[in-house]
């Protein structure tokens, strides 16, 4: 981890050119890398030596961007994935397999809910979903002997539940398992979960990190703090020999890099969800302004939230930075400088009024996306979360009338003017 402030890390971390080398991180648009000795190539395959040989495993552009995200989070090791979905899939499957169990906060991104409730269940990994606002005792009761991880989102998309990170981290550690947190919405600019006890952070870099809606991508960052050896019987994949690599024991050989090395060496090798170097290059350009964009998103969102709260046609507004919000106190504790640019609201006219209002917007577009420079809206019950029944929607914190509003970084008066004419 560098000692620079976070703004400097956004720009400088991850890539340091040597004398006469390109100032800007190059795109290593190459599937493969050349060697003059067959023996050296063999050592690379055995993980005996580090180096590049095939982009499915490692690529210099991707590694530089992963290193920047790692530094932003204050982690020990990181990897990029093709999407946020791939990141959350790998993060769990790297330490859980058929017969295992995970505990998840129920307020989750719709895709993550499907992944954990249905897809990994077919692979034999069961998830128990708990109310993020549950008591420590209720959280404790969700654990089983075969529990391998705890998962939650810093700020849930789209429920905007701010997670009590310490409560979840403490419960995970009491049961000898890591706490994995999806920090997509807060970004490391507003919250660094490792400082509150989380062990592993995931990201959909598609959102604020890219910031311009150009590339789908993901990342996994390991703090290096979880002591796998102390719970060796729970995590044999990390603490016993990997026969596919001539008996390497990841914790012994890679220390704080064990978890990410295993995820790269096994999951990326076999499942192949890599980010393209071209996308990593664009992601890196996005990261260079993350520290400027995120505060602007937050400020605009808070201004819009205050406007909506005073509007006669608006039934409710949810924005964790708005005084009086259910999650205001948790937001002040974990992310006092701001939460995110996404807010949600409902109209007194309910679901139909929501659809009508959205159709009247001129500048603000209806898109299945959040967290990029352009303001946009979405109706989760008819879009991202449409596979869920009403019960599942409520458990995920999504009211049927909820409009998700991703406030962009246009001039806030133009954003409000568009909303105002749509509400007439
Ligand atoms: C979008 C999102 C994901 C999924 O990421 P993709 O890059 O779309 O695969 C996961 N978690 C959160 C919180 C998200 O917002």
Automatic annotation (TrEMBL):
Similarity-based family: Belongs to the trans-sulfuration enzymes family.
Entries under InterPro entries matching the protein: Cys/Met-Metab_PyrdxlP-dep_enz, OAc-hSer/O-AcSer_sulfhydrylase, PyrdxlP-dep_Trfase, PyrdxlP-dep_Trfase_major, PyrdxlP-dep_Trfase_small
Modified residues (N6-(pyridoxal phosphate)lysine): 207
Record GO cellular component, one term: cytoplasm
Single GO MF descriptor: pyridoxal phosphate binding
The entry's keywords: Pyridoxal phosphate, Transferase
Coiled-coil regions listed: none
Any single biological process term in GO: cysteine biosynthetic process from serine
Species of origin: Faecalicatena orotica
Name assigned to this protein: O-acetylhomoserine sulfhydrylase
Gene3D superfamilies in the cross-refs: Aspartate Aminotransferase, domain 1, Type I PLP-dependent aspartate aminotransferase-like (Major domain)
Cofactor: pyridoxal 5'-phosphate
